[in-house]
Amino acid sequence: MKHKLLKLLPDLIALFASNAVVLWFWFRAAKIYEFETPVFLWGLFIVPLLGVWLIYKKYKEHPTVKLSSFGFIPTGGFEISKYLTALNNAIVLIAVGIFFIVLARPQTSRSWENISTEGIDIVIAMDISASMLAKDFKPNRLEASKEVAIDFIKERPTDRVGLVVYEGEAFTQCPLTTDHRVLTNLMSDIKTGMVEGGTAIGSGLATAVNRLKESEAKSKVIILLTDGVNNSGNIPPLTAAEIAKEFDIRVYTIGVGSKGRAYSPVSIAPNGQYRYDLVEVKIDEKVLKDIAEITDGEYFRATDNSSLASIYQNIDKLEKTKIEVTQHSKKSDRFFDLALIAVGLILTASFLQFFILRFTP
After folding, report:
1. Angstrom distance (rounded) from CA 232 to CA 343
2. Is 221 exposed, middle or buried, given 0-12, 13-18 or 19+ CB atoms closer than 10 A?
3. What span, in angstroms and rounded, lies between the C-alpha atoms of 322 and 249?
4. Fewest CB atoms within 10 Å of the CB: 29, 219, 257, 337?
């Protein structure tokens, strides 16, 4: 029994090694490529069966003779042909396994997307008058409005957004841009007192309209936010609304402030700090509703931080950007290198069989 195992050892090592190499080729190909006809990979199960058949065929062609003793037979020393035959069989098995992987057609796949958008141009017109420092929002109306607006901007990466601020006068803090990092930085910088005091709703709206009138976007939107009553500026709010309508601009108006009274700035102390007192919240809701109605927009009332955030979420749903994504893919065959390896192995096995083993004892 021990003698038989010793005779089979080179063939068993060759069988194990060849299957390990085939598995390695399959594992590497599966990790890197996709297979066009993976059904051929089932042929890899033939490799170990073919190896067993080659071993059986070899020893059937060279039958053994039972003798009571081997002492009278001279030993021939190291039989190199036995090991070369095992090597030859291993090379054949590896070549067969690689051919099955080649038949499965490994491929690389490259895909890309073309994204086309029907963008929306949005201008946020924000009241920054002193009353926006009222503390019925946390920490105050202005900071809450800035924070919620920044979150809104982050959710619209494909849209151009601009920023207009107003008190008694209005100016553009940031023109329409897709560079939202710059926009949010500029929005963070705004504060009360940047221009003459007051609340010029009409001027703020007209300035925002001016930023959008040349826009070629499919949809043009203004989000107008205020906490008071128009008491400054040369342009009446409803006149500005009619101008917005002419340029097909939709205006969403937001009244910011709790109902009743709120702690609001009433005067400035000698140290430059505001003095606060309970003040009646007065928002000209009729004007804001009329602006929204004229421009086919909508009016919202925000009484705290959470309701203000909900309003921006509603506007986000009402003004969805249309995005069309077209997917493309290209596949390239990668079996040629493997086929060359398999052919090289077959040629090597043929060379061993016909030029080496034939003349090796």
Report:
1. 88
2. buried
3. 18
4. 337
Q: Dihedral (C-alpha) 7, 12, 14, 18: value to the nearest 10 degrees? A: 170
Quick one: CA dihedral 222, 225, 229, 230, positive or negative? negative
Q: How does the average pLDDT of the chain come out, rounded?
A: 86
Report the C-alpha gap between 165 and 204 in whole angstroms. 7
Listing DSSP states for 301-360 in one string gives EE-SHHHHHHHHHHHHHHSPPEEEEEEEEEEEE--HHHHHHHHHHHHHHHHIIIIIGGG-
DSSP 8-class letter at 236 = -
296-355 pLDDT per residue, tens = 999 999 999 999 999 999 999 988 776 555 555 667 787 888 889 888 888 888 888 777
Instruction: Round to whole Å and give the CA distance between 360 and 93.
Output: 22
The model's pLDDT over 10-37, given as tens digits with 9 standing for 90+, comes to: 777 877 888 888 888 888 888 888 888 8
Give the DSSP H or E segment for 32. helix 2-32
Q: Which residue has the higher pLDDT, 326 or 89?
A: 89
Return the biggest CA–CA distance within the chain. Answer: 127
Domain ranges of the chain: 2-108+334-359, 116-324
Among 257, 268, 258, 264, smallest CA distance to 279 is for 264
Q: Look at residue 335 in the predicted model and tell me its pLDDT.
A: 81
State both tokens at 72.
């009278």
Residue 174 has pLDDT above 50, yes or no: yes
Measured in degrees and rounded to the nearest 5, phi and psi for residue 129 equal: -65, 165
Predicted structure pTM score? 0.61
CA–CA gap between residue 138 and residue 140 (Å, rounded): 5
